[in-house]
Amino acid sequence: YTGPRATGAAWSAVPRVALNMVTAALVTQSAEALRGLNYDKQNWQQFFTAEGDVTIKLPDTSQTTGPSAKKLINSVDGKADKTALDGKADKTALDGKADLVSGVVSKAQGGTGLSSPFGTGAGSFCEGNDNRLNTIGGKSGGQITSPFGKVNALPGNFDSLYAGNRNYGLYQEQMNVLGAGYLYPHMSFKMYWPGHYGGVFTWSAWANSNNPEYVLSWTYEAGTTPHMWRFNGTNGNATATGNWVNGGSTVKIKEKVEDIQNPRETMRIIRACTWRLKTKNADGRFGIGVLAEGLYEAYPEAKVTAGDIELRDGTVVKDALSVQAGDSGVLAAVHHATIISLMDENEAQQKEINQLKADVEALKKIVE
User: Listing from the earlier edge strand, what are the strands of the sheet with 186-193?
Assistant: First the structure.
């Protein structure tokens, strides 16, 4: 109680004015207490329900602002609790380990055991500027699962592809610039080596203005391409700057050499004709030549096959007969033997004709 009071006596009569003052003071203090209780209820409700900051009202009507309970909870959400923190090393324990990280950390303690983690030995790492990362040198085995090589996007002729690309060993080069000419797109694998026969051997696949081609070529260091073997992807034809040479034909590597007997009879059973192919990959293509069946009827040991060939209807001809090419083929041998036989016959007939002419001249002289 803070109102007026009597002091120094066990009892004294309180004047009316004093009673009025006491009553007024009690009313004021009661109102202030009730206002404080109401503020407390409002403040607690805000503190527990608001999302952000709350404004707290005091009994003397002054105000202060601070975080709500939800804001405080959210601010520590995800933070380590006391149990988790107790499991962490304290500063004193870490200070006791300072000597372990001031030098080389052993592998047993989680380090590399090296004064520097970078190097070329086991247990070391490559630095970002390590030249071993620049190439695939020193690696072995495994598979390359994505494209690799050099992209050359400058148009040019075949010889110019070699200029400046003198990389040792096998490497891949790609030129995929679209344009007029016969080199686009171009994909190739090249093998380069220097020296007396310096140059590059190239396996290429490209598409010219008309046909896709697979090409083998040889290019000198001077940048010229003297030799090229081309396989046309449209018609299946093969061309070369040189000759297509079969195996050796000299008598020095052969035995049991016998002249062909009755070549004319063999010629009679060989069928020469024209045709249209009915194979899946060359359906309708025109052809002219001989059928293999007649060739191998007389010489079955000379039979050669082209493997399995699929027809346009899906039927597969197993071990389809083929015809040898070059000086070792049955057809060439039979033709040659037949021509020799005809030449022998022609020479014999010519001798008979000459003899008949001589006899006629002799008769003329007798008659005269």
Answer: 150-151, 169-175, 186-193, 199-207, 212-220, 227-232, 238-240
| Successive 10-residue mean pLDDT values, the chain, 368 residues | 55 66 82 83 87 85 87 81 67 60 72 72 74 75 64 46 49 56 58 63 69 77 75 81 77 87 85 88 83 85 87 92 70 82 91 92 86
At 47, list the tokens. 């503190």
CA dist list (Å): 227 to 210, 235, 240, 295: 22, 22, 8, 35
**CA–CA separation, 222 and 199 (whole Å):** 8
Give the containing element (helix H, strand E) for 63: strand 63-67
Between the alpha carbon of residue 32 and those of residues 7, 56, 159, 368, the distances in Å are 27, 16, 105, 182
Single pTM value for the model: 0.43
Instruction: Answer whether 321's CB lies under 8 Å from 308's CB.
Output: no
Q: Is 167 helix (H, G, I), strand (E, B) or coil?
A: coil
According to DSSP, residue 221 is labeled T
- Note the residue count of the chain: 368
Q: How far apart are the first and last CA of the chain?
A: 192
